[in-house]
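Q: What would this chain look like folded?
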Amino acid sequence: MKRLSLNLLSAACIITGVVAGLTTASAQDKYPSRPIKVLVPYAPGGATDITARIVGDEFQKITGQGFVVINKPGANGQLAIDELINSAPDGYTVMVGNVTTNTIAPVLYKGKWPFDYAKSVVAVTNLVDVPAFLVATTANNFPVQTVPELIDFSKKNPGKVNYGTVGAGSYPHFDGAYLAKKAGIDMRALPNKNGASGVIQDLLRGDVQVAFLNTGSSAGQVQAGKFRAIAVVNNTRLEDFPNVPTMKEAGYPDVGTIAWNGMFAHAGTPKPVLDALYTAVTKALNSPEGQAKIKKQNYIVATSKSAADAQQWLTSELKKWESIVKEVNLDLTQ
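A: My prediction, written as structure tokens:
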């Protein structure tokens, strides 16, 4: 009887240990259970960086886990994407990118990058749509105040107008080239590897005369009188800038990209993790605090309906930009 009691006691201890182990494993498996590394393919201060940090602030409040933004600019997003797909597919390394890095560049460099983007990266959710201004500098007494004046000045001064871009093949590069093509003017692209903040410095110095810049990074300079917003790339005028006409009103309805920021993960990430990530991120962005911060930047919350819906959205964006790239033949050596 004594031996039987000891055996029963041992068995009970083993069962208790197993249950405790399962409970601990379950707690450890709950996502997220540790901080998330978020790769941003631009320098600090641009729209993508701003969006990532807004999401991160609210994400941490909701989950209790950190949202560590790592800025990794360069090569139109290739550096950030490469790090993403070489990370563990566990949802603890993600990327917040934009239309340039996650749809245009994969089309432009298809077959040239050392990975298959479409098979290596999955969308978690779209985050925001980002309107943009077509701005003109006020440095060096640059006189342009409207789109027609820009066209007229460029025709009278061929080759004397530089437009800023965040890199060859970026959507501001496409937008500037398409405007020049449609208007029949000669403008020269001047890329800046430091992203939107670099283009802003080029404009402030007068090295660049005009640029398509997202409203979040340029509105402050417009309000300070350093830049003139001569048009807005959006379907309607912005509430905070009611006197700035849309590109459509300026006579160029198909010129300009309403950009977006989205979140992406390793394609091998398990579906339950993707779904948990989607739920936490969209809850963060759609919180009252998150929405208020987004509105302050003149962005528009545009989260996907689900992680599966986000992947369909990414696929459609890639197809759309395949068509645009064929139509606008860019000089990518600039």
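The chain has twelve helices and eleven strands.
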